[in-house]
Amino acid sequence: MSLQQPQTRIQKKNRESILNAALGVFSDHGFRGATLDQIAAEAGLSKPNVLYYFGSKEAIYTELLSGLLETWLDPLREIDADGEPVEEILGYVLRKLQMSLDFPRESRLFANEIVQGAPHIIDQIEGPLRDLVDKTAKLFRRWSDEKRLARIEPHHLIFSIWATTQHYADFSVQVTGILQSDNDAHFADAASFLENLYRRALTPPAN
Amino acid sequence: MSLQQPQTRIQKKNRESILNAALGVFSDHGFRGATLDQIAAEAGLSKPNVLYYFGSKEAIYTELLSGLLETWLDPLREIDADGEPVEEILGYVLRKLQMSLDFPRESRLFANEIVQGAPHIIDQIEGPLRDLVDKTAKLFRRWSDEKRLARIEPHHLIFSIWATTQHYADFSVQVTGILQSDNDAHFADAASFLENLYRRALTPPAN
DNA sequence: TTAATTATTGACCAAACGGTCAGCAAGACG
DNA sequence: CGTCTTGCTGACCGTTTGGTCAATAATTAA
Questions:
Q1: Per-residue pLDDT tens over the stretch B42-53
Q2: Residue B80 in contact with residue B146, Cβ under 8 Å?
Q3: Torsion sign, CA atoms B145, B148, B153, B154
Q4: A90: which residues sit within 8 A by CB, 6+ positions away?
Q5: B157: closest chain A residue by CA
Q6: Which residues in chain A have their CB less than 8 angstroms from residue B126's CB?
Q7: Closest-lying nucleotide for B35 based on CA to C1'
Q8: Which of A43, A71, A158, B91 could form a disulfide with A21 if both were Cys (CB 3.0 to 4.6 A apart)?
Q9: How far apart are CA A127 and CA A123, in angstroms?
């Protein structure tokens, strides 16, 4: 139902607008809280027509999730094993923060899914995601051994980067409610704060 | 409906078990995703009986939220303005982390609420919460001015502490899926990682 | 033009939902 | 004991939900 290629022009357009509408609705209300009527309305289609393109509510959701996980991990893959350790990791932090700015709906979609126990993507977490994280952790450890990076537990470092960057997308209501200025202004401050924080934490001792 | 005192023994017991059951269900599925039948079943009561104690689904939810926000902010209030800056903040980090261990359901309840736009507690965020944060931020800035704390943007520091500590409750499925060991083991590592991270970031320059 | 395929919809369905209510059971209390 | 309040429930209601289907409209291919 999804791997085939013979997409007509109309199919491509409508599937796209359904997924786009669904991204908005699912990220706002979670899987169970979202309704097909909402998605259909936002996509400008009738409910039966939405179900003509995707067999079920769950089909839309899982297609969204699996299609997005790749994109979501791209910044991590871009870390260059041959680069300067501290700068590579700081670059990752800033790319991840930028993703929270550019794709807040995607971030909240994952947040909803994982907070509620990741019932639909637990396999991908324990599979490809873990492999990539383990590989990256190994690289960080090597950098530490070579004294080019402060000694720090790599897995928890990665968790902290995810947490601090995605926070600005997932909890933007809270951030905005406290800082009382628009989102773009926060992000500039957040970027310099995080660069500051991680530079101090990651720079190896001088000697 | 909630401020009165004349609670009988039975009222106290049943309201308590309803709130406890609701905490589990709401934190697992969010407000819209949770159902009264689930809550009633988990509390060991019939649905009409649940509605006898709380007038509506929303009444249960808001009572939970407002009752919890206080507890949730306690660790922040415990910061001693007369203490040693770095140690005070590190203590806060560890207390907050401990809360994620002890009260993961409460943490996920807030996470769900805020990710979905905080429709029920936006007032408390822009009111009491912001006031407390601003007050604490002012304290941090003073400490920085006195050179007893590294220069760092206080609001974003607080955000990062929330993000990194609550991450272990809100995204525990992901953490467990990647680390493949039980929760208690993670927390010991997380504690030493976070202490390490923030000590380096907060300790003022030597000179 | 025609025939086949693809796209779309109104009407409908069973299940699940939050909530109501009349009536019954159980404690509290004199 | 009897009375009064509190606690509890089965049956029910209107609405919303995800999903179906037969019929129709639009597009494509010959």
A1: 999 999 999 999
A2: no
A3: negative
A4: A195, A198, A199, A202
A5: A193
A6: 177-178
A7: C17
A8: A43
A9: 6
Question: With an 8 Å Cβ cutoff, are A200 and B196 in contact?
Answer: no
- The residues of the protein lying within 7 Å (CB) of strand D read A 8-10, 34-37, 47-48, 51, 55-58; B 8, 10-11, 14, 45-49, 52
Tell me the CA–C1' distance in angstroms for A155 and C2: 66
Nearest CA-CA distance, residue B45 and chain A, Å? 24
pLDDT of residue A181: 84
Q: State residue B4's pLDDT score.
A: 47
List bases in chain D with any atom under 7 Å of a protein Cβ: 6-11, 16-22, 27-28
pLDDT means per 10 residues, chain A with 207 residues, are: 58 95 96 96 97 97 93 95 98 97 96 95 93 97 97 98 98 95 87 98 88
DSSP letter string, chain A: --S-----HHHHHHHHHHHHHHHHHHHHHHHHH--HHHHHHHHTS-HHHHHHHSSSHHHHHHHHHHHHHHHHHHHHHT--TTS-HHHHHHHHHHHHHHHHHH-HHHHHHHHHHHHTT-TTTHHHIIIIIHHHHHHHHHHHHHHHHTTSS----HHHHHHHHHHHHHHHHHTHHHHHHHH-S-HHHHHHHHHHHHHHHHHHHHSPP--
Cβ contacts from A onto B, under 8 A: 171
Whether B119 sits with its Cβ under 7 A from any strand C atom: the answer reads: no
- pLDDT value of position B50: 98
| Structure-token pair, residue B139 | 């304290």
- Side-chain-side CA neighbours of residue B68 (13 Å): 23
Residue B15 pLDDT more than 60? yes
Supply A66's token pair: 């699996």
CA distances in angstroms from B109 to A113, B83, B183, listed in the order given:
14, 32, 19
Where does the pLDDT of residue B207 fall: very low under 50, low under 70, confident under 90, or very high at 90 and above?
low
